[in-house]
Structures are given as structure tokens and as C-alpha cells.
Specification:
This protein is α/β, with parallel strands linked by helices. It contains 8 helices and 13 strands. The strands form 3 sheets. Strands 1, 2, 3, 4, 10, 11, 12 and 13 form an 8-stranded mixed beta sheet that branches. Strand 6 and strand 7 form a beta hairpin. The longest helix has 13 residues. It is globular and about 50 Å long.
């Protein structure tokens, strides 16, 4: 089955207002930039996103956030984004903070048909006991707080019950993909992308390189095509560097004199 669509706009055309989205990537690594931009252009609003973080100011999911398109988000890290903090503290955005490993397992569980699981992460904190502010009122009071979760003892240790996550759509970015939807992620981009790909009822993949069926080594495929419904080729479009850190180059004269003194 050929799952390739002609454009990112076509791929996200049926993402409607109120849809939930699992979005792959970590920071700006492996983020489906092109699909996010297409949703921004398309106009869907009141979205619920599930992602490790919510982009940065004016990049990644930060584009949708800055435009006021996200109503609620589930994530484990909200730094590097001043607009996120402003909206959350002003009561404009609902946030469900989740430990990073728990978030990964909730996505994996949802994609595997597992409704819930027990984990020690969060026991003895607001994560398990409830009371974590999910949404504030404009005056700074808590409008919505997290509910308490079921806990249980196993082998004398306490665990908290966490639910799997399934979303309406999943957006991922892969280095290579074929027309059947088989995907290969490059290096660190293989973070939340495979997990999100399984958790979406409809998974849309933007791929940097599109190849024909049979060209990918089956042993190297990270996400089988059975989990992917749409593929769009984007090349290297949208790739950004979150933080550029470089060492100042020594001048030629410094290098020569340094070498001479060492000799």
C-alpha cells in the first residue's frame, strides 16, 4: 500500500479543532517541523499535545503555542520557552507534568494496547498524591489540580498506577522511510519518535529521504509501516539547531607561537 501523500498540507488536512496529537522529538531534535507548520497554516485550534517538551519560543510546537492553538499539553520538560511559562501561569494553558520515563512508558503502553501500568516514579509526590496545578486562574489561584492516583504495594514497595496514552494523531520525523510507511530514525532522533508513532490512531511521518519498498534493511527499521498511515517527503526542510556552542578559534600567530614554545 502506497502511503505517500503529496504535501504536508494534505497530510494534516483532517486534523480538526480539539484533536489530540502525540509529537515526536526531544528539544528540537527529531521534531516534525514541517507538519507542525502545516497545522499552523491549516488553522486547527484548541489542540491537546503530548510531547517531551513543547518546543521553544517560536520553533517546533512553540509555533502553535505562540499562536494560541494549544489548549492542553502533557509533557515532562517545559523549560526554554518563556511563552509557555507565561500562558501556564496566566491560566491560558493546561499542563499535565509527567516524569520523563513515565511519559515514555505511557506512550509505549498506549501503542501496545496496555491500558495502565504500575511504576515507582512519583510515589510520595504530587504525581501520585494529587494536587499538582494543571491550570491556574488569572488571579494565580489553582483552577484545576491533578487528582490522586491509585497506589499498590508489590514486594513491599509502593507503586502508582499510570494510564497509557492514545491520541487522535501522531506526528513524527524520520531520516528515511519507504512508501509502505517503514521508518528509520537517525541517532538521537530515535527518542520519542518510535513511541509516538505507535500511540496515534493516525500516524503521519515526514521523512527526509523517501525510498522504494525493499530498499530498507528490515533489521534496521525502527517503526514498522503497520503503525504509519501517511508519509510525506520533506528533505532537510525545517531542521534547526537549538543551541549553537562553538569554541573560539585560536589565531594563526597564537598557534605558531604556542607550538614553538612547546618545542
Amino acid at each position: 500500500m502506497d502511503k505517500v501523500v503529496g504535501s504536508a498540507a494534505e497530510a494534516v488536512a483532517d486534523i480538526s479543532t480539539g484533536s489530540s496529537l502525540a509529537v515526536g522529538g526531544f528539544g528540537l531534535c527529531g521534531i516534525p517541523h514541517v507538519l507542525i507548520q502545516a497545522i499552523l497554516d491549516q488553522g486547527a485550534t484548541s489542540l491537546e499535545t503530548v510531547s517531551n517538551n513543547c518546543g521553544v519560543d517560536e520553533a517546533g510546537l512553540g509555533l502553535l503555542l505562540f499562536a494560541g492553538r494549544i489548549r492542553r499539553t502533557i509533557g515532562s520538560y517545559v523549560g526554554e520557552n518563556r511563552e509557555f511559562a507565561r500562558q501556564y501561569l496566566a491560566g491560558e494553558l493546561e499542563l499535565e507534568l509527567t516524569p520523563q520515563g513515565t511519559l515514555a512508558e505511557r506512550l509505549r503502553a498506549g501503542g501496545s494496547g496496555i491500558p495502565a501500568f504500575y511504576t515507582p516514579a512519583g510515589v510520595g509526590t504530587w504525581v501520585a498524591e494529587g494536587g499538582m496545578p494543571w491550570r491556574y486562574n488569572s488571579d494565580g489561584s489553582v483552577a484545576v489540580a491533578s487528582p490522586p492516583k491509585e497506589t499498590r504495594l508489590f514486594g513491599g514497595q509502593e507503586y502508582v498506577l499510570e494510564e497509557g496514552i492514545v491520541t487522535d494523531f501522531a506526528l513524527v520525523r524520520a531520516a528515511r522511510g519507504d512508501r509502505h510507511g517503514n521508518l528509520v530514525f537517525d541517532s538521537a532522533a530515535r527518542n520519542f519518535n518510535p513511541l509516538c508513532a505507535t500511540a496515534g490512531r493516525v500516524t503521519i511521518a515526514e521523512v527526509e529521504e523517501l525510498v522504494e519498498p525493499g530498499e530498507l534493511d528490515p533489521a534496521q527499521v525502527h517503526t514498522p509501516g503497520v503503525f504509519v498511515q501517511r508519509v510525506v517527503e520533506v528533505g532537510l526542510a525545517g531542521k534547526l539547531i537549538e543551541k549553537r556552542t562553538v569554541r573560539q578559534r585560536a589565531s594563526a600567530s597564537t598557534s605558531v607561537s604556542g607550538a614553538g614554545s612547546e618545542a
